[in-house]
Design goal:
single chain; alpha+beta; 4 helices; about 30% helix
């Protein structure tokens, strides 16, 4: 079972804590991850990141899992999921940039998050974050309906 923090007010304890936007995560007690913390973690501009940031600014639900997963493992999972989405004809945005970002990280542990903008006829975004300092290193979106339940597993 993964530890996650939602964009909703539910304080939880974890091995990581967030300081102000742009600060590094540190060992201690967990504060909730705010939308502004997540917005500050975007350090690059791409179509997918712009759409994900817009969704956050519009109040889309998001969640961040606090159990780091090796980037190489996430890369394999991400490739497989993207192939499945393509076979099913689901439109995606940012897939190539996301795969490149994950490939450059190697074995370092990354946090996984999502931003769900489907209620506004938007995209479901998967984000991969370097925790030290908190920074989005990969982001892709898929246009799926709210009835389509994306895999809740952080990987």
């Amino acid at each position: 079972m993964s530890t996650s923090l939602s964009g909703k007010s539910m304080p939880q304890k974890s091995a990581l804590t967030l300081g102000k936007p742009g600060q590094e995560l540190r060992v201690g007690e967990m504060d909730e991850v705010s939308a502004s913390d997540l917005l500050a973690a975007f350090k690059f501009d791409s179509e997918a990141s712009s759409r994900a940031k817009n969704a956050l600014l519009s109040g889309a639900h998001f969640d961040v899992w606090l159990d780091p997963v090796p980037a190489a493992r996430l890369l394999g999972i991400c490739r497989s999921r993207l192939r499945t989405l393509q076979r099913r004809g689901k439109p995606t945005v940012g897939a190539a940039e996301c795969l490149t970002g994950l490939a450059e990280i190697g074995e370092r542990g990354l946090l996984v998050a999502y931003v769900d903008d489907r209620k506004r006829a938007g995209y479901y975004f998967r984000l991969y974050l370097d925790p030290h300092p908190l920074k989005v290193v990969g982001c892709f979106g898929v246009n799926i309906s709210p009835e389509d339940d994306p895999i809740a597993d952080p990987e």
